[in-house]
Design goal:
465 residues; alpha+beta; 2 domains; eight-stranded mixed sheet; single chain; BirA Bifunctional Protein, domain 2; 18 strands
């Protein structure tokens, strides 16, 4: 049983986000062990101390409010009795029998003073509880998902595990060029003009390369919708804070995003709007799994990538991607993860590209992931495998942030769904792989057969002019 399955089977009533407080109370050592595997210091003791302070403040607030309610009833009874000229209140035990008018008035004033004190105690306790609760949420918001049991431990990509390979890298009787040299030699890839328009990490594609980019997107969408059962979605490219928080880009990775002056965020991937389609919802079990796909532009500031992949199209501020998102029952998410990865692999297989599947280590996974497979395609121009897709199972992590739940058929209560996302594929990097793997000695590039009908029957991209 994995760590993230536990909250789904025993959901807490604390309204906690990201990580279930009840589960942390019951499994502090396991929680800390998961953080340690992520390269982080233990946090259970700090969180549970805050949790105790929060619950104590909540108890104080509830007790003060109960006292305030009791005093309100006594005041009401005393006021009613004071209207009786005889000053009698009968058998009301809360105020006392047969008290004269002046005594009743004095009692009312005393009760009002006590009620005011109780109201102030309630306010102070509620303020303290809200402050501590906010501190708990802030602490939890900064902690990543805990790794699944079979994720290899390690600080970075050096601990990743290659699971399998498919296809053989092509053999050339000439020195293969990198994609940027091929594109410029074709006269269809322009970094200079893009730099004049927008700065570094942008590109202008023209003619057949622009069409190849479009062909790849259409091919991927057709495959995922017609054969793999994903529902195509055309989502907004601008989202609010809550959407990025739900998929965990906020608050920790705000510097990696682009934000408008009106407060909207440009999506870093269609994962954000697609996953948030179920935010705040209680879904019927019969509607699961839900599978969505979208082809969108993506925008990333690449703030943490200074000096990395500065040449070519590997790491851009704006790029195209076909995204896959699944919403499942907890018990189905592991199988769905394998299925999603296979769907992404099929794109590479049909394009005839050699690739390998890599299980990421605990130190190399994304913030929201509990388990991630990377698909790495062979790039002859670099003489290396490079990531073209990441497929991640996020368990209940994003669902708890988004308050996305489902109601089991015939059961009581609700449970968090599990969310998964993957690239199916990154279009720009797939285009790079085609240029480098299908290049010819004369500067032309062959078009993979799977794309012929999307390229108007063209089988070769020739140098422009």
């Amino acid at each position: 049983m994995t760590i993230q399955e536990m909250p789904a089977k025993n959901p807490g009533n604390d309204g906690s986000l990201m990580h279930d407080l009840r589960w942390i109370r019951e499994h502090p050592e396991e929680f800390d062990r998961g953080l340690t595997r992520r390269g982080l210091p233990p946090s259970a003791e700090q969180i549970l101390a805050l949790d105790r302070a929060w619950r104590a403040a909540e108890t104080c607030a509830q007790e003060a409010q109960a006292r305030r309610n009791r005093l309100a009833r006594e005041i009401g009874a005393a006021v009613a009795a004071s209207k009786d000229r005889g000053g009698a209140i009968g058998a009301n035990a809360e105020v006392g029998p047969l008290e004269p008018q002046p005594v009743l008035q004095q009692r009312v004033e005393g009760l009002k003073t006590e009620a005011a004190k109780a109201a102030e105690e309630t306010r102070l306790a509620e303020t303290d509880a809200a402050r501590v609760r906010a501190e708990i949420d802030q602490t939890l918001a900064g902690l990543p998902n805990l790794p699944d049991d079979d994720v290899p431990d390690g600080p970075d990509e050096t601990a990743n595990r290659v699971l399998r390979r498919h296809g053989k890298p092509p053999h050339f009787d000439f020195v293969p060029l990198p994609h940027e040299a091929i594109g410029e030699r074709l006269g269809l890839m322009d970094f200079v003009r893009a730099g004049q328009l927008s700065g570094s990490r942008f590109v202008v594609l023209r003619g057949a390369l622009a069409r190849l980019e479009r062909a790849l997107g259409q091919f991927m969408l057709d495959l995922h919708t017609a054969e793999f059962g994903y529902t195509e979605v055309s989502p907004p490219l601008l989202v609010r804070d809550a959407a990025l928080f739900g998929t965990s880009q906020l608050p920790k990775f705000a510097e990696d995003q682009f934000r408008t002056t009106e407060g909207y965020w440009l999506i870093p991937t269609a994962e954000v709007p697609l996953t948030n389609l179920v935010a705040g919802e209680i879904l019927d079990e019969s509607t699961l799994p839900r599978r969505y796909t979208a082809w969108t532009p993506c925008f990333r500031s690449e703030a943490g990538a200074a000096g990395k992949d500065t040449r070519g199209m590997i790491r851009q501020h704006q790029f195209e991607k076909v995204e896959l998102v699944s919403i499942t029952r907890p018990e189905d998410s592991a199988a769905e993860h394998e299925r999603m990865t296979a769907c992404a692999e099929e794109v590479l297989k049909r394009l005839g590209l050699a690739y390998r599947v890599v299980l990421l280590s605990s130190g190399d996974m994304g913030f929201a992931s509990q388990k991630t497979y990377d698909l790495e395609v062979w790039l002859p121009g670099q003489g290396a495998y490079r990531e073209v897709s990441s497929c991640s199972n996020c368990g209940a992590f994003q669902a708890q942030r988004m308050k996305a739940r489902y109601r089991p058929a015939g059961g009581k209560g609700t449970m968090p769904v599990h969310t998964l996302n993957g690239s199916g594929l990154a279009i720009g990097r797939t285009l790079i792989a085609i240029l480098e793997n299908f290049q010819r000695h004369n500067g032309a590039v062959a078009v993979p057969p799977a794309l012929h009908r999307y390229m108007g029957g063209d089988r070769v991209i020739e140098p422009d002019g």
